[in-house]
Amino acid sequence: MLQIAPTWEARPWDDPSRMLCVDVARERILAAFAPLPAVRVPIIDGLGFVLATDVVAGTDIPPFANSAMDGFAVRAEDTLDSSDASPARLRVIGQAAAGYPSDVLLLPGTAVRIMTGATIPAGADAVVRFEETDEAGHGVTAGAGSDGTIGIMRPAKPWANIRPAGEDVRTGQRVLLAGSRLRPAEIGLLAALGRATVLVHRPPRVAVLATGDELVDPGVAPRPGQINNSNGASVAAMVRRSGGEPVMLGIARDTPEEVRDKLRAGADADFLITTGGVSVGDYDIVKDVLCDVGQIDFWQVRMKPGKPLAFGHIHGTPMLGLPGNPVAAAVAFEQFARPAILKLLGRTDLAIPTVLARLADRVENRGGRRHFARVRVDATVEGYVAHLSGAQGAGVLSSLAAANGLLVVPEDLPAGEVGMTLPVQMLDWEVG
What we know:
This protein is α/β, with parallel strands linked by helices and 432 residues long. It has eight helices and 28 strands.
């Protein structure tokens, strides 16, 4: 397990000159995570999970040559001179239905009535659609005239309307790679290969703890000076959206005993996320307890919002301490916790889906930090356009609720000007 050693003297959170860039902080955090052990589940239950091993085809798909159309299986050379005025007349010697093997052999001048998905009879090398025959004019269900023949009114190209064996997948082909997320299409492919179960990485159990005497759970009437605990619910929801299973630890009051007890309750989780108690000015008791029961490094990250951060291990469990301000916690979660959860799931595509958008509003960026501004992105005929979704204070949740993306203003850019094109992390877009 990674041991986080302090990179400076005691109380680093009191030294504002010690700041990490977002990318370095993310690298350090992700280095502590690895995919969780694999479990075998029914393929339907694997939806949304990540393959733990490559899938190699043990059979061809399709396993035999079959018809792509309803029509007649023929020898292409028997139809070379066919036309509306002079159809090639072939003797119908049988029928082929999907789900049954064919023991018919086509000889020159013969045809077999065939349904979509049925095995191509031996000797046939093309399928002619019903619409290209004179079947309709006969008015008989057998598909042949009273003389037992069918008229082919178009020349057939060799292998027309035939799906050859292995057209989709060949035996021995690596069809799905470890790290792939299982969508309905992948589930269908597994079923086509005859797989009833699949090996996936199990979802991580992520313990969520809010800290602070000022917090009460939703549904409990706040006393004067208290506020509802929005972080617990929003972080748990982000955990679930990222593919993890949230374990709610509730609220820890600012006492050493309660913080220790709550942290101990989350010790069997795969990942522990706390909010509050990691910024300059917070009660030292929270920081002291975190350091006492684990190996924790307190950082300042060159980002806005979300500058204060803590990371390390508590009772051997990776622990990420997010800021207490609701929007700062959410932004920091997206940058650090979300990719960590994806890595636990076995994902390799950890980046948030990002587009380039033209700014419709000016965005200031003082302080030389990477600014993640809440925006509403609209698609237009001229490309994506980003509008600020409201006030940008670190505690203004309403503008986060109105946003569908985070506009990224680089550290060295003092402002995003109207008309400028910048990247936007799309929060509502599903990854993979």
